[in-house]
Amino acid sequence: MGVVQYVVDLGPTVVLPILICLFGLLLRQKLGSAIRSGITVGIGFIGINLVIDLLVGNLGPAAQAMVNNLGVNLSVIDVGWPATSAIAFGSTVGALAIPIGLAVNVGMLVLGLTKTLDIDLWNFWHIAFTGALVAILTDSFWMGILTAVVHMMILLILADLTAKHVQDFYGYPNISFPHGTSAPYYLIALPMNKLFDAIPVVRDWKANPESIQKRFGVLGESTIIGLALGLVIGVLAGYDVQQILQLGISTAAVMLLLPRMVSVLMEGLMPVSEAAGEFIKKRFPGREFYIGLDSAIAVGHPSTIASSLLLVPIVLALAVMLPGNRVLPFGDLATIPFIVCLMVPIFRGNVFRTVVTGAVAIGIGLYIATWISPMFTTAAANAKFEFPENATTISSLVDGANPMTWILLMVSKLGALGMIVFGILIIAWAYYMKVRRAQPVK
Fold first, then answer.
1. CA dist., res. 270 & res. 173, Å (int)
2. Where exactly are the transmembrane stretches of this chain (predicted)?
């Protein structure tokens, strides 16, 4: 367990470059090229985190000010994903999350039930989180472990299903996202896209950044949109002129810098991705192979960022207006891009569709986050988490409001047999999808 905790403590910006380097060597990359890839990926992730921190540092206080202006008193505090991941890894299930995730991944690769090799070990905290909640709900450590296993299977299958969308829209060959926050929302985007296509007039709306820029010229550029959204949020927060302007420039900077940081990261990943493709072609003719990564490399797309910024005031309004909601969105407002980044490819970058679907998903998620808040708070206490000042009950949007969290908690009420049957059904579905894809088109 000490080794696992040491790996967790290193964090993704250290662990991922090492794994990329080792993976590159395994794929017969030259030593210098593998080292360069690993270091470049690490630099890219640090750059992405710096830009996201810029967004968090400016958007978080603005969101808090908006809520204060409304005079709303919501009793459950959204502590954000960093706290949630620490609570997850600090649980009894969390200590085993990485070996469990690796074992499930290797087993499914061997059986041909997934094409994804998930090297994003840090984000195994998502399966630790659901496992920890189920262990509390059922008062059973082993039910928590079983839940983590099933959750990992689901994420790998969703990664396979979304891989083509990721590759076609974002242009990332041989990459998939088995990310606990992003992947489940793909299942919401699919039916919503069909609904939009069925509505006259709405189905014809072109609302991607390219169409917006073409129609509005310089006013449609991503930095100008970021500036405008920042100014609007600043006004709603009740800021003075200086603070409004500073927030506007900060959001404009995020719109410009985040895609560039992602391009640095991809500069390191592309040689490894190409080497993986060649390796699989030679040794496993006819098989596809994906590298499973953090969906952070997708959040820099202009459609993702623009949709996310528009959703900030909408999510806060929903929190205030929805009867029965007790969660105050705060810590995870800046991570809304992770919630919508796998919706965006389904909608082909359509900001309108992404915002509407994001609002529906997060609106439902607020009720989920409210419902699990007692279990979340217990898990935090068990992990010796230091609660924010004046906070007695906590939750989060990531992954506290995630539909997959709710599904797994519901299934756990059926006991171990119910969870096993659920896992078998998932495997059967994965096998069916594999056979269906292998059949020639008539």
1. 8
2. 6-27, 39-59, 79-112, 119-137, 143-163, 216-239, 245-269, 289-322, 328-347, 354-372, 406-432
Residues comprising the chain, all counted: 442
- pLDDT for the residue 439: 55
The whole-number average pLDDT for the span 41-57 is 79
Split at pLDDT 50, 70, 90, the class of 442 is very low
| Residue 333: closest CA among 141, 114, 64 | 64
Phi first, then psi: give them for residue 62, nearest 5 degrees: -65, -40
pLDDT band at 437 (very low <50, low <70, confident <90, very high): low
Portion of the chain with pLDDT greater than 70, in percent: 89
How far are the Cα atoms of 154, 161, 182, 188 from residue 114, in angstroms, in the given order? Answer: 10, 10, 18, 22
CB atoms within 10 A of CB 246: 15
Pick from 155, 154, 152, 174: nearest CA to 163: 174
Q: Which two tokens stand for residue 434?
A: 């594999």
Distance, CA of 81 to chain centre: 10
28: left (phi over 0), alpha (psi -120 to 50) or beta: left
For 168-182, give the DSSP string. Answer: III--TTEE---TTT
Tokens of 256: 């410009």
Range of the domain at 160: 2-438
What's the structural domain count of the chain? 1
- Share of residues in the chain with pLDDT > 90 (%): 31
In whole angstroms, what is the distance from residue 365 CA to residue 360 CA? 8
Q: How far apart are CA 182 and CA 194, in angstroms?
A: 20
- Is residue 384 classed as helix, strand or coil in its secondary structure? coil
Whole-number Å distance between alpha carbons of 333 and 184: 18
Q: From CA 184, how far away is CA 179, in angstroms rounded?
A: 9
Nearest-angstrom CA–CA distance, 7 and 104: 19
- Alpha-carbon gap, residue 60 to 48, rounded angstroms: 17
